[in-house]
Fold this sequence. Notes:
By secondary structure, the chain is of the alpha+beta class.
Amino acid sequence: MSLVRSQSISFSLNPHETLLDGLERTGHEVEYQCRGGYCGMCRVRMLSGEVHYLEQPLAFVASDEILPCCCIPRGEISIDSQLRAELIVWQEQGDLFPVQQDLFSAELANADAQQASKKPNRKPRAKASAQPPTLPLF
Ligand code: FES
């Protein structure tokens, strides 16, 4: 389980999520274009920790920068990233709906991870009736 600490909140990444996916899901201000490590638009400064690149990125990064679109943290990392401006205002005012506040809790992310690992629970479809419905004449 990867724990991400930004300047605003902490959250856990879901399975199969890149760091960029997690930042978007939690309302962080992130820019991107290629989502494949080519353009460098998504680069952020990593303050501590270590990441693993799914594929070797081609974009240039400084020694303290990472490309969230194509990496996954190894353990806990701290990055220089903030929530979107409107979310910061709402968070400071305590004006988020409970469901939005839950978005930032690590417990919800853990629950999402457990849910994602389960197979979908599908209900069997109701069989169509063999008899056509009777319609009133008037
Ligand atoms: S979005 Fe292009 S390198 Fe990350």
